[in-house]
Amino acid sequence: MLPIDDAKRGLKLLVNAGMRKVNFAGGEPFLYPAFLGELVRYCKEELRMESVTVVTNGSLVKEKWLQQYAKYLDIMAVSCDSFDENTNMIIGRGKGTHLKTFVTLSELCRKHNVMFKVNTVVCRYNINEEMNAMIEKVAPFRWKCFQVLVVSGENDSSTTLRNAQRFVISNEEYQTFCDRHKHQPSFVPESNEVMKSSYLILDEYMRFLNKGVKEPTKSILEVGVPAAMNDVYWDDESFTRRGGEYDWQKEEKKENTTLDF
Question: What is the pTM of this model?
């Protein structure tokens, strides 16, 4: 992990290059709560970003953190792949208490004026699940449903850190899941077709990732943002199709939206 001053310098370079929204994801960003909190504060208070999001599995989020940093945070996106605890454990999501944590976080986000978002990866183990009732209960402003994605060299075999082959579903199976839930106002589907290369993702060294295409770029701390962007494959049409631009600010802070980095 970069020293915090280098992380801040990278974020400032990105803002100077036109970034207006940032997502802090992982891994699990709450493994380093003080580091994360300071970057969230820096992005909103000093860099004046339009929107700041943290993507988390929820297991390490404490209300004390929200009491200190919620005023700088627009969105908390919490991963929940099933509303059946046994299915969560089969998938590898927690040890039997994930749903309790998930519901508590939805309540804490409302309490602390943070927009609550749900991320679900649709896979072999939840493809037939009926999720409408629970989604209506927690009422996220946005429910992203990703088709499980296998990336060459990252999660495609027993030789990689993770192997997602057992989770794979067909496009037709994914569409069946979408048809069952598409009436939800917050529902946002994201198939493999539109997901690939539609995100600008930086790793912990501030390198843009070229997932499944080629090696990461050089760090923006070394070459700057424009030079790194020249070496990253980003599909702006897929970005638009997946709804990359949306209403991403708290009610009292809305301004014009732009690219979702």
Answer: 0.88
